[in-house]
Amino acid sequence: MRDFFDELDFGDYSAKTIKISRKVPICMVLDDSGSMAGEKIKELNKNIEDFLRYVKNDPKAGRIADIAIITFGDTVKVKWGYESIENIKFLGLYAGGKTPMGSAVSEAIELLKARRNYYRENDIEHYKPIMLLMSDGEPTDDYEESAKALSEMVKSREIKIFPVGIGEDFNKETLKKFSPVLEPKIIKGAEGFSKLFRLLSSSSSNPEDDSLEKWFRDEA
Asked: Under a CB-based contact definition with an 8 Å cutoff, are residues 153 and 179 in contact?
């Protein structure tokens, strides 16, 4: 991968603190392309802020959540590469450009591999990683290889993927290629955004809470 991974700061885990708690890696892969402009990006920003505030204010979530945020709007940007909540200063996302979803997912996979290596090297236990993949449109890059790689990780129980389609225009069949187990969940308004991030918050403080998965399966 790029030199980015050689320089990545994985947070302040000293030898005295690394065994304090088992971590839950949460990676949000978020579409901030041009089609997300307006109310969509506004609601996304609001609910990311609410989620991060919850993690910060919940003692258990703040201790175990290991958060990464990757965006794909024109280019792929790693906003945070797995950080403790106190290191994250969220300033909001701005919509613009194309939709390089495949590249963003590839970046997320490599980032997770680097993080898991870090866990192993420092004897840190972790729960199954969670990935939230959100988009309102069609990828504008070659996404087939990254979709296959992520699907294989899901099938081998290496990661949980929660695919979210925003609005009416996203391609459900394309998003399904990244998620062989859960069907994409459609979000059309503020209520859906709020429910999604509220359930994600519950997972951040209790990784064994399956309410998010049940919601995706329309069981809750």
From this structure: no
